[in-house]
Predict the structure.
Amino acid sequence: MARILLIDDDVNLREVLAFTLREQGHEVEAAPDGEAGLARLAAFRPEVVITDLKMPGIGGLEVLASVRETDAAIPVILLTAFGSIEEAVEAMKLGAHHYLTKPYNRDELRLAVDQALERRRLLLENRSLRDRLREQTRGVEIVHASAAMQRILEVVGRIAPTDVTVLITGESGTGKEVIAQALHARSDRWEKPFVAVNCAAIPRDLMEAELFGYARGAFTGAVKDKPGKFQRADGGTLFLDEIGDLPAELQTKLLRVLETGQVDVVGGQKPVQVDVRVIAATNADLAARVQGGQFRSDLYYRLNVIPIHLPPLRERTDDIPALWEHFVREYAGGVSLRSAPTLIRALMRRPWPGNARELANVCQRMVLLRTADVLTEEQLPPLEEHETPTGSGAAGRNATDIIGELPKGRLPLLEVEREIIVRALAMHEGNRTRTAQYLGIPRHVLLYRLAKFGITR
Protein backbone atom coordinates (compact mmCIF):
# COMPACT_ATOMS: atom_id res chain seq x y z
CA MET A 1 0.00 0.00 0.00
CA ALA A 2 2.24 2.79 1.23
CA ARG A 3 5.43 3.51 3.18
CA ILE A 4 4.64 5.22 6.49
CA LEU A 5 7.15 6.70 8.93
CA LEU A 6 5.75 6.57 12.47
CA ILE A 7 7.36 8.73 15.19
CA ASP A 8 6.21 8.54 18.82
CA ASP A 9 8.06 8.41 22.15
CA ASP A 10 5.29 6.27 23.75
CA VAL A 11 6.56 2.75 23.09
CA ASN A 12 3.21 1.03 23.73
CA LEU A 13 1.23 3.39 21.47
CA ARG A 14 3.95 3.20 18.84
CA GLU A 15 3.81 -0.59 18.71
CA VAL A 16 0.00 -0.68 18.57
CA LEU A 17 -0.10 1.95 15.82
CA ALA A 18 2.57 0.15 13.83
CA PHE A 19 0.65 -3.14 14.13
CA THR A 20 -2.61 -1.47 13.01
CA LEU A 21 -0.97 0.16 10.00
CA ARG A 22 0.76 -3.04 8.94
CA GLU A 23 -2.54 -4.88 9.34
CA GLN A 24 -4.01 -2.38 6.86
CA GLY A 25 -1.29 -3.34 4.38
CA HIS A 26 1.24 -0.53 4.88
CA GLU A 27 5.00 -0.76 5.23
CA VAL A 28 5.89 0.94 8.53
CA GLU A 29 9.19 2.32 9.85
CA ALA A 30 8.86 3.20 13.57
CA ALA A 31 11.10 5.68 15.41
CA PRO A 32 11.16 6.49 19.16
CA ASP A 33 11.74 10.26 18.80
CA GLY A 34 11.99 13.12 16.33
CA GLU A 35 15.74 12.91 15.89
CA ALA A 36 15.65 9.20 15.04
CA GLY A 37 12.68 9.71 12.74
CA LEU A 38 14.35 12.47 10.72
CA ALA A 39 17.50 10.38 10.48
CA ARG A 40 15.48 7.67 8.69
CA LEU A 41 13.61 10.10 6.42
CA ALA A 42 16.00 10.08 3.45
CA ALA A 43 16.67 6.34 3.37
CA PHE A 44 13.08 5.18 3.95
CA ARG A 45 11.45 7.77 1.64
CA PRO A 46 8.01 7.64 3.29
CA GLU A 47 4.82 8.54 1.50
CA VAL A 48 3.16 9.60 4.79
CA VAL A 49 4.63 10.70 8.12
CA ILE A 50 2.67 10.20 11.39
CA THR A 51 4.29 11.96 14.36
CA ASP A 52 3.46 12.78 17.94
CA LEU A 53 3.14 16.52 18.58
CA LYS A 54 4.77 16.60 22.02
CA MET A 55 8.08 14.72 22.33
CA PRO A 56 11.33 15.34 24.20
CA GLY A 57 14.00 16.98 22.03
CA ILE A 58 12.74 17.39 18.48
CA GLY A 59 8.96 17.80 18.63
CA GLY A 60 6.25 17.32 16.05
CA LEU A 61 6.42 20.88 14.71
CA GLU A 62 10.14 20.55 13.99
CA VAL A 63 9.49 17.20 12.30
CA LEU A 64 6.78 18.90 10.20
CA ALA A 65 9.12 21.70 9.17
CA SER A 66 11.92 19.27 8.23
CA VAL A 67 9.60 17.03 6.23
CA ARG A 68 8.15 19.97 4.30
CA GLU A 69 11.64 21.26 3.58
CA THR A 70 12.68 17.82 2.31
CA ASP A 71 9.56 17.21 0.21
CA ALA A 72 6.39 19.28 0.55
CA ALA A 73 4.41 16.48 -1.13
CA ILE A 74 4.83 14.19 1.90
CA PRO A 75 1.72 14.69 4.07
CA VAL A 76 2.22 14.83 7.86
CA ILE A 77 -0.42 13.57 10.31
CA LEU A 78 -0.05 14.74 13.92
CA LEU A 79 -0.95 12.72 17.02
CA THR A 80 -2.07 14.88 19.95
CA ALA A 81 -3.78 14.68 23.33
CA PHE A 82 -7.11 16.45 23.84
CA GLY A 83 -5.39 19.32 25.64
CA SER A 84 -3.20 20.11 22.63
CA ILE A 85 -5.86 20.37 19.95
CA GLU A 86 -5.35 24.13 19.57
CA GLU A 87 -1.66 23.51 18.92
CA ALA A 88 -2.55 20.81 16.40
CA VAL A 89 -4.87 23.17 14.54
CA GLU A 90 -2.10 25.77 14.51
CA ALA A 91 0.24 23.13 13.10
CA MET A 92 -2.21 22.48 10.27
CA LYS A 93 -1.96 26.13 9.36
CA LEU A 94 1.78 25.52 9.04
CA GLY A 95 1.21 22.71 6.56
CA ALA A 96 0.21 19.59 8.48
CA HIS A 97 -2.31 17.44 6.62
CA HIS A 98 -4.44 16.27 9.58
CA TYR A 99 -4.37 15.50 13.29
CA LEU A 100 -5.64 12.54 15.36
CA THR A 101 -6.39 12.64 19.06
CA LYS A 102 -5.16 10.01 21.49
CA PRO A 103 -6.41 7.37 21.98
CA TYR A 104 -6.81 6.98 18.22
CA ASN A 105 -9.77 5.43 16.40
CA ARG A 106 -8.90 2.69 13.84
CA ASP A 107 -11.42 3.95 11.28
CA GLU A 108 -10.28 7.56 11.69
CA LEU A 109 -6.68 6.42 11.25
CA ARG A 110 -7.50 4.51 8.06
CA LEU A 111 -9.47 7.48 6.67
CA ALA A 112 -6.73 9.98 7.56
CA VAL A 113 -4.04 7.84 5.88
CA ASP A 114 -6.19 7.26 2.76
CA GLN A 115 -6.88 11.01 2.45
CA ALA A 116 -3.19 11.79 2.97
CA LEU A 117 -2.20 9.37 0.21
CA GLU A 118 -4.80 10.83 -2.15
CA ARG A 119 -3.52 14.33 -1.40
CA ARG A 120 0.03 13.20 -2.13
CA ARG A 121 -1.07 11.61 -5.40
CA LEU A 122 -2.75 14.85 -6.51
CA LEU A 123 0.26 16.93 -5.49
CA LEU A 124 2.66 14.71 -7.42
CA GLU A 125 0.36 14.69 -10.46
CA ASN A 126 0.11 18.46 -10.34
CA ARG A 127 3.87 18.75 -9.96
CA SER A 128 4.38 16.49 -12.97
CA LEU A 129 1.95 18.52 -15.09
CA ARG A 130 3.64 21.75 -14.04
CA ASP A 131 7.06 20.35 -14.93
CA ARG A 132 5.81 19.26 -18.33
CA LEU A 133 4.18 22.64 -18.89
CA ARG A 134 7.36 24.37 -17.83
CA GLU A 135 9.42 22.36 -20.30
CA GLN A 136 6.94 23.17 -23.07
CA THR A 137 6.90 26.83 -22.11
CA ARG A 138 10.68 26.97 -21.84
CA GLY A 139 10.77 25.68 -25.39
CA VAL A 140 10.09 29.09 -26.95
CA GLU A 141 11.35 28.26 -30.42
CA ILE A 142 14.11 30.51 -31.70
CA VAL A 143 15.10 29.15 -35.09
CA HIS A 144 18.68 30.02 -35.90
CA ALA A 145 21.87 28.75 -37.50
CA SER A 146 24.17 31.77 -37.25
CA ALA A 147 26.94 32.25 -34.70
CA ALA A 148 25.55 35.71 -33.92
CA MET A 149 22.20 34.33 -32.77
CA GLN A 150 23.91 31.52 -30.85
CA ARG A 151 25.88 34.10 -28.86
CA ILE A 152 22.68 36.00 -28.12
CA LEU A 153 20.93 32.84 -26.88
CA GLU A 154 23.88 32.09 -24.61
CA VAL A 155 23.42 35.52 -23.04
CA VAL A 156 19.68 34.86 -22.71
CA GLY A 157 20.39 31.61 -20.89
CA ARG A 158 22.71 33.33 -18.41
CA ILE A 159 20.50 36.29 -17.53
CA ALA A 160 17.03 34.69 -17.75
CA PRO A 161 16.99 33.39 -14.14
CA THR A 162 17.77 36.87 -12.79
CA ASP A 163 15.51 39.90 -12.45
CA VAL A 164 17.92 42.22 -14.26
CA THR A 165 16.37 44.76 -16.64
CA VAL A 166 17.09 44.11 -20.32
CA LEU A 167 17.03 46.47 -23.31
CA ILE A 168 16.62 44.69 -26.65
CA THR A 169 17.48 46.70 -29.74
CA GLY A 170 17.17 45.91 -33.42
CA GLU A 171 15.21 46.69 -36.54
CA SER A 172 11.51 45.90 -36.79
CA GLY A 173 10.87 42.24 -37.44
CA THR A 174 14.14 40.91 -36.01
CA GLY A 175 12.36 39.03 -33.20
CA LYS A 176 12.70 41.29 -30.17
CA GLU A 177 9.47 40.04 -28.58
CA VAL A 178 10.49 36.41 -29.15
CA ILE A 179 13.72 37.06 -27.22
CA ALA A 180 11.69 38.72 -24.44
CA GLN A 181 9.38 35.68 -24.28
CA ALA A 182 12.42 33.39 -24.08
CA LEU A 183 13.79 35.42 -21.17
CA HIS A 184 10.45 35.08 -19.39
CA ALA A 185 10.01 31.36 -20.18
CA ARG A 186 13.46 30.51 -18.83
CA SER A 187 13.01 32.55 -15.64
CA ASP A 188 11.49 31.64 -12.29
CA ARG A 189 8.54 33.87 -13.28
CA TRP A 190 7.48 31.52 -16.08
CA GLU A 191 4.17 30.60 -14.41
CA LYS A 192 3.18 34.25 -14.00
CA PRO A 193 1.89 36.55 -16.77
CA PHE A 194 3.95 37.81 -19.68
CA VAL A 195 2.33 41.13 -20.60
CA ALA A 196 3.39 42.92 -23.78
CA VAL A 197 2.74 46.62 -24.41
CA ASN A 198 3.45 48.45 -27.66
CA CYS A 199 4.20 51.99 -26.52
CA ALA A 200 3.80 53.29 -30.08
CA ALA A 201 0.32 51.82 -30.52
CA ILE A 202 -1.43 53.37 -27.50
CA PRO A 203 -2.75 56.95 -27.83
CA ARG A 204 -0.72 59.42 -25.78
CA ASP A 205 -3.64 60.51 -23.57
CA LEU A 206 -4.46 56.87 -22.68
CA MET A 207 -0.93 55.67 -22.04
CA GLU A 208 -0.73 56.55 -18.33
CA ALA A 209 -4.00 54.82 -17.45
CA GLU A 210 -3.09 51.83 -19.62
CA LEU A 211 0.29 51.33 -17.94
CA PHE A 212 -0.49 52.26 -14.34
CA GLY A 213 -4.25 51.74 -14.09
CA TYR A 214 -6.86 54.10 -12.68
CA ALA A 215 -9.18 54.34 -9.70
CA ARG A 216 -12.93 54.72 -9.84
CA GLY A 217 -13.88 58.35 -10.37
CA ALA A 218 -10.41 59.35 -11.59
CA PHE A 219 -12.02 60.86 -14.70
CA THR A 220 -15.32 60.89 -16.57
CA GLY A 221 -16.21 57.33 -17.49
CA ALA A 222 -14.05 55.70 -14.80
CA VAL A 223 -16.95 53.84 -13.19
CA LYS A 224 -14.74 51.21 -11.53
CA ASP A 225 -11.12 50.51 -10.69
CA LYS A 226 -9.05 49.18 -13.56
CA PRO A 227 -5.62 47.64 -13.04
CA GLY A 228 -2.89 48.72 -15.44
CA LYS A 229 -0.36 46.60 -17.29
CA PHE A 230 2.02 46.69 -14.33
CA GLN A 231 -0.62 45.22 -11.99
CA ARG A 232 -1.57 42.61 -14.59
CA ALA A 233 2.07 41.55 -14.89
CA ASP A 234 2.56 41.34 -11.10
CA GLY A 235 4.88 38.44 -10.34
CA GLY A 236 5.74 38.08 -14.03
CA THR A 237 7.30 40.05 -16.86
CA LEU A 238 6.26 43.32 -18.53
CA PHE A 239 7.56 43.77 -22.07
CA LEU A 240 7.62 47.41 -23.16
CA ASP A 241 8.04 47.41 -26.93
CA GLU A 242 9.03 50.60 -28.77
CA ILE A 243 10.05 52.19 -25.47
CA GLY A 244 11.54 55.10 -27.40
CA ASP A 245 8.01 56.33 -28.11
CA LEU A 246 7.08 56.64 -24.43
CA PRO A 247 6.00 60.25 -23.74
CA ALA A 248 8.45 62.31 -21.70
CA GLU A 249 6.02 62.84 -18.82
CA LEU A 250 5.59 59.07 -18.42
CA GLN A 251 9.30 58.37 -18.53
CA THR A 252 9.56 59.87 -15.02
CA LYS A 253 6.76 57.64 -13.71
CA LEU A 254 8.33 54.56 -15.29
CA LEU A 255 11.67 55.39 -13.70
CA ARG A 256 9.98 55.63 -10.30
CA VAL A 257 8.36 52.21 -10.73
CA LEU A 258 11.70 50.66 -11.69
CA GLU A 259 13.43 52.18 -8.67
CA THR A 260 10.74 51.64 -6.01
CA GLY A 261 8.51 48.84 -7.31
CA GLN A 262 5.51 51.08 -6.64
CA VAL A 263 2.87 52.15 -9.16
CA ASP A 264 1.05 55.48 -8.83
CA VAL A 265 -2.47 54.63 -9.99
CA VAL A 266 -4.28 57.47 -11.75
CA GLY A 267 -6.66 58.93 -9.18
CA GLY A 268 -5.47 56.48 -6.53
CA GLN A 269 -4.95 57.36 -2.88
CA LYS A 270 -1.69 55.47 -2.35
CA PRO A 271 0.95 53.64 -4.43
CA VAL A 272 0.44 49.97 -5.29
CA GLN A 273 3.38 47.61 -4.73
CA VAL A 274 4.20 45.37 -7.71
CA ASP A 275 6.81 42.72 -8.40
CA VAL A 276 7.55 42.96 -12.12
CA ARG A 277 10.56 42.29 -14.29
CA VAL A 278 10.76 44.86 -17.07
CA ILE A 279 12.16 44.07 -20.52
CA ALA A 280 12.20 46.95 -22.99
CA ALA A 281 12.77 46.99 -26.73
CA THR A 282 13.22 49.59 -29.44
CA ASN A 283 14.18 49.92 -33.08
CA ALA A 284 15.28 53.51 -32.44
CA ASP A 285 18.72 54.77 -31.43
CA LEU A 286 17.97 55.55 -27.77
CA ALA A 287 21.47 56.82 -27.15
CA ALA A 288 20.94 59.43 -29.88
CA ARG A 289 17.57 60.35 -28.39
CA VAL A 290 19.22 60.83 -25.01
CA GLN A 291 21.75 63.17 -26.60
CA GLY A 292 18.91 65.02 -28.32
CA GLY A 293 16.98 65.44 -25.07
CA GLN A 294 14.08 63.26 -26.22
CA PHE A 295 14.70 60.44 -23.73
CA ARG A 296 15.74 60.64 -20.09
CA SER A 297 19.34 59.58 -19.59
CA ASP A 298 18.63 58.14 -16.11
CA LEU A 299 15.81 55.98 -17.49
CA TYR A 300 18.01 54.89 -20.40
CA TYR A 301 20.76 53.69 -18.07
CA ARG A 302 18.18 52.04 -15.79
CA LEU A 303 16.76 50.09 -18.75
CA ASN A 304 20.09 49.36 -20.41
CA VAL A 305 21.52 47.19 -17.64
CA ILE A 306 21.88 44.24 -20.04
CA PRO A 307 21.77 45.30 -23.71
CA ILE A 308 20.92 42.72 -26.37
CA HIS A 309 21.24 43.81 -29.99
CA LEU A 310 19.52 41.69 -32.64
CA PRO A 311 21.30 42.07 -35.98
CA PRO A 312 19.10 42.38 -39.08
CA LEU A 313 18.54 39.33 -41.23
CA ARG A 314 20.86 40.63 -43.95
CA GLU A 315 23.76 40.41 -41.46
CA ARG A 316 22.96 36.83 -40.43
CA THR A 317 22.06 35.22 -43.74
CA ASP A 318 22.97 31.81 -42.30
CA ASP A 319 19.64 31.96 -40.45
CA ILE A 320 17.58 32.43 -43.61
CA PRO A 321 17.43 28.77 -44.78
CA ALA A 322 16.50 27.53 -41.30
CA LEU A 323 13.86 30.23 -40.83
CA TRP A 324 12.46 29.59 -44.30
CA GLU A 325 12.02 25.86 -43.70
CA HIS A 326 10.42 26.62 -40.33
CA PHE A 327 7.90 28.97 -41.95
CA VAL A 328 7.20 26.50 -44.77
CA ARG A 329 6.30 23.80 -42.22
CA GLU A 330 4.16 26.27 -40.29
CA TYR A 331 2.12 27.43 -43.29
CA ALA A 332 1.98 24.17 -45.27
CA GLY A 333 -0.61 22.65 -42.95
CA GLY A 334 0.99 19.22 -42.85
CA VAL A 335 1.65 19.06 -46.60
CA SER A 336 5.23 18.09 -47.50
CA LEU A 337 6.76 20.91 -49.55
CA ARG A 338 10.29 21.31 -50.90
CA SER A 339 12.24 24.45 -51.67
CA ALA A 340 14.50 24.52 -54.71
CA PRO A 341 18.20 25.26 -53.98
CA THR A 342 18.06 28.22 -56.35
CA LEU A 343 15.20 29.64 -54.25
CA ILE A 344 17.25 29.38 -51.04
CA ARG A 345 20.19 31.15 -52.72
CA ALA A 346 17.86 33.87 -53.96
CA LEU A 347 16.41 34.30 -50.48
CA MET A 348 19.90 34.74 -49.06
CA ARG A 349 20.69 37.47 -51.60
CA ARG A 350 17.64 39.58 -50.69
CA PRO A 351 18.05 42.51 -48.25
CA TRP A 352 14.89 41.75 -46.20
CA PRO A 353 14.30 45.24 -44.76
CA GLY A 354 11.33 43.76 -42.86
CA ASN A 355 13.61 41.01 -41.52
CA ALA A 356 12.09 37.72 -40.28
CA ARG A 357 8.57 39.16 -40.37
CA GLU A 358 8.92 39.96 -44.07
CA LEU A 359 10.44 36.54 -44.73
CA ALA A 360 7.45 34.90 -43.02
CA ASN A 361 4.97 36.95 -45.06
CA VAL A 362 6.67 36.05 -48.34
CA CYS A 363 6.71 32.39 -47.33
CA GLN A 364 3.02 32.38 -46.45
CA ARG A 365 2.15 34.03 -49.76
CA MET A 366 4.18 31.50 -51.79
CA VAL A 367 2.80 28.50 -49.88
CA LEU A 368 -0.81 29.62 -50.32
CA LEU A 369 -0.41 30.47 -54.02
CA ARG A 370 1.74 27.46 -54.98
CA THR A 371 0.81 25.31 -57.97
CA ALA A 372 3.18 22.45 -57.15
CA ASP A 373 4.89 20.85 -54.18
CA VAL A 374 8.20 22.52 -55.01
CA LEU A 375 8.72 26.20 -54.24
CA THR A 376 10.93 27.91 -56.81
CA GLU A 377 12.72 31.20 -57.31
CA GLU A 378 10.26 32.19 -60.04
CA GLN A 379 7.47 32.37 -57.46
CA LEU A 380 9.27 35.02 -55.42
CA PRO A 381 7.54 38.41 -55.48
CA PRO A 382 9.66 41.09 -57.17
CA LEU A 383 11.81 43.40 -55.08
CA GLU A 384 10.40 46.78 -54.19
CA GLU A 385 11.97 49.77 -55.91
CA HIS A 386 13.84 50.78 -52.75
CA GLU A 387 15.27 47.29 -52.20
CA THR A 388 18.58 46.06 -53.59
CA PRO A 389 20.05 42.58 -53.30
CA THR A 390 22.42 42.09 -50.38
CA GLY A 391 25.98 42.90 -51.38
CA SER A 392 25.02 45.66 -53.87
CA GLY A 393 26.41 49.12 -53.43
CA ALA A 394 24.69 52.28 -52.24
CA ALA A 395 21.66 53.49 -54.16
CA GLY A 396 21.54 50.25 -56.13
CA ARG A 397 24.97 50.69 -57.77
CA ASN A 398 27.64 47.99 -57.90
CA ALA A 399 31.16 48.32 -56.53
CA THR A 400 32.61 49.41 -59.88
CA ASP A 401 30.11 52.29 -60.08
CA ILE A 402 31.23 53.49 -56.64
CA ILE A 403 35.05 53.28 -56.80
CA GLY A 404 35.65 52.99 -60.53
CA GLU A 405 38.12 50.59 -62.12
CA LEU A 406 40.68 49.14 -59.69
CA PRO A 407 44.20 50.59 -60.11
CA LYS A 408 46.97 48.37 -61.47
CA GLY A 409 49.26 49.02 -58.49
CA ARG A 410 48.74 48.52 -54.78
CA LEU A 411 45.29 49.22 -53.22
CA PRO A 412 45.32 49.28 -49.36
CA LEU A 413 41.83 48.05 -48.39
CA LEU A 414 41.87 49.70 -44.94
CA GLU A 415 42.63 53.09 -46.47
CA VAL A 416 39.77 52.68 -48.92
CA GLU A 417 37.39 51.73 -46.09
CA ARG A 418 38.52 54.70 -44.01
CA GLU A 419 38.11 57.09 -46.93
CA ILE A 420 34.57 55.84 -47.63
CA ILE A 421 33.57 56.30 -43.98
CA VAL A 422 35.06 59.81 -43.87
CA ARG A 423 33.21 60.82 -47.04
CA ALA A 424 29.93 59.30 -45.85
CA LEU A 425 30.24 61.19 -42.55
CA ALA A 426 30.90 64.44 -44.39
CA MET A 427 27.92 63.81 -46.67
CA HIS A 428 25.67 63.48 -43.61
CA GLU A 429 27.25 66.39 -41.71
CA GLY A 430 28.74 64.13 -39.05
CA ASN A 431 25.42 62.46 -38.11
CA ARG A 432 26.49 58.95 -37.17
CA THR A 433 23.02 57.42 -37.22
CA ARG A 434 22.28 58.54 -40.80
CA THR A 435 25.81 57.59 -41.86
CA ALA A 436 25.35 54.06 -40.52
CA GLN A 437 22.02 53.76 -42.34
CA TYR A 438 23.64 55.01 -45.56
CA LEU A 439 26.46 52.45 -45.27
CA GLY A 440 24.00 49.68 -44.39
CA ILE A 441 25.63 48.81 -41.07
CA PRO A 442 24.42 49.05 -37.44
CA ARG A 443 25.37 52.22 -35.59
CA HIS A 444 27.55 50.32 -33.11
CA VAL A 445 29.57 48.84 -36.01
CA LEU A 446 30.15 52.34 -37.36
CA LEU A 447 31.27 53.53 -33.91
CA TYR A 448 33.74 50.64 -33.80
CA ARG A 449 35.12 51.61 -37.22
CA LEU A 450 35.45 55.26 -36.17
CA ALA A 451 37.46 54.26 -33.11
CA LYS A 452 39.51 51.77 -35.17
CA PHE A 453 40.50 54.39 -37.75
CA GLY A 454 40.84 57.23 -35.24
CA ILE A 455 38.11 59.30 -36.91
CA THR A 456 36.97 61.87 -34.37
CA ARG A 457 34.94 64.26 -36.55
